[in-house]
TrEMBL record:
<feature type="domain" description="HTH myb-type">
    <location>
        <begin position="8"/>
        <end position="60"/>
    </location>
</feature>
<protein>
    <submittedName>
        <fullName>Uncharacterized protein</fullName>
    </submittedName>
</protein>
<dbReference type="InterPro" id="IPR009057">
    <property type="entry name" value="Homeodomain-like_sf"/>
</dbReference>
<feature type="domain" description="Myb-like">
    <location>
        <begin position="61"/>
        <end position="111"/>
    </location>
</feature>
<keyword id="KW-0539">Nucleus</keyword>
<dbReference type="GO" id="GO:0051707">
    <property type="term" value="P:response to other organism"/>
</dbReference>
<dbReference type="Pfam" id="PF00249">
    <property type="entry name" value="Myb_DNA-binding"/>
</dbReference>
<dbReference type="InterPro" id="IPR017930">
    <property type="entry name" value="Myb_dom"/>
</dbReference>
<comment type="subunit">
    <text>Can form complexes with MYC2, MYC3 or MYC4.</text>
</comment>
<keyword id="KW-0238">DNA-binding</keyword>
<dbReference type="GO" id="GO:0005634">
    <property type="term" value="C:nucleus"/>
</dbReference>
<dbReference type="GO" id="GO:0080090">
    <property type="term" value="P:regulation of primary metabolic process"/>
</dbReference>
<feature type="domain" description="HTH myb-type">
    <location>
        <begin position="61"/>
        <end position="115"/>
    </location>
</feature>
<feature type="domain" description="Myb-like">
    <location>
        <begin position="8"/>
        <end position="60"/>
    </location>
</feature>
<dbReference type="InterPro" id="IPR015495">
    <property type="entry name" value="Myb_TF_plants"/>
</dbReference>
<keyword id="KW-0804">Transcription</keyword>
<keyword id="KW-0677">Repeat</keyword>
Length: 161
DNA sequence: AACCAGTGCAACCGCTTCTTT
DNA sequence: TAAAGAAGCGGTTGCACTGGT
């Protein structure tokens, strides 16, 4: 049996306070990311490492865009989702300043509905092929330097002209 | 003004993958 | 090569906020 990542009784849960945010970002600015397991103790936080990592990546990390997605971003998410499926971290990697959590939330709350309204089943990405998109072999078009660990796809999406 | 349903976002949970020994 | 530990990821949940009645 694996130990839990943290002792639940000794950790705070729920929303982060300003003080906690400050401690976390101060610590990371000083020491850099890494070793999330030991970070909370070192930073003086009563949080588990997972929680710290998530908070940093999704909220505190510099360069994050907040607010609405632009049309171009929306379009790119749809295309990448058609190509990659629910691989949110890969999709987010193509959207500067966006996080996997943000992309996932946006997909689930906005884009899925939008596609359904358009008569597209979001679970069947290849239907997009009939809506002005073709999936072709080869990568260069969208400048996708996807580095997939297991099944590296050799496909990309290109706009039908 | 009060209630309720719908929505969006932040955070948690548990599984998978990667790394180290 | 296998096992254990750490990190990463995606699914899901909880709650605050908003708009409609």
């Amino acid at each position: 049996m694996r130990k839990p990542c943290c002792e639940k009784k000794e950790t705070n849960r729920g929303s982060w306070s300003q003080e906690e945010d400050q401690k976390l970002s101060d610590y990371i600015k000083q020491h850099g990311e890494g070793c999330w397991r030991s970070l909370p103790k070192a930073a003086g936080l009563r949080r588990c490492g997972k929680s710290c990592r998530l908070r940093w990546i999704n909220y505190l990390r510099p360069g994050l865009k907040r607010g609405n997605f632009g049309e171009d971003e929306e379009d790119l998410i749809i295309r990448l989702h058609a190509l990659l499926g629910n691989r949110w971290s890969l999709i987010a990697g193509r959207l500067p300043g966006r996080t996997d959590n943000e992309v996932k939330n946006y997909w689930n709350s906005h884009l899925r509905k939008k596609l359904i309204q358009m008569g597209i089943d979001p679970k069947k990405p290849h239907q997009l092929g009939g809506k002005g998109l073709h999936i072709k072999t080869c990568l260069p078009d969208l400048n996708l330097d996807l580095t997939l660990s297991n099944t590296a796809p050799s496909t990309t999406l290109v706009e039908e002209s």
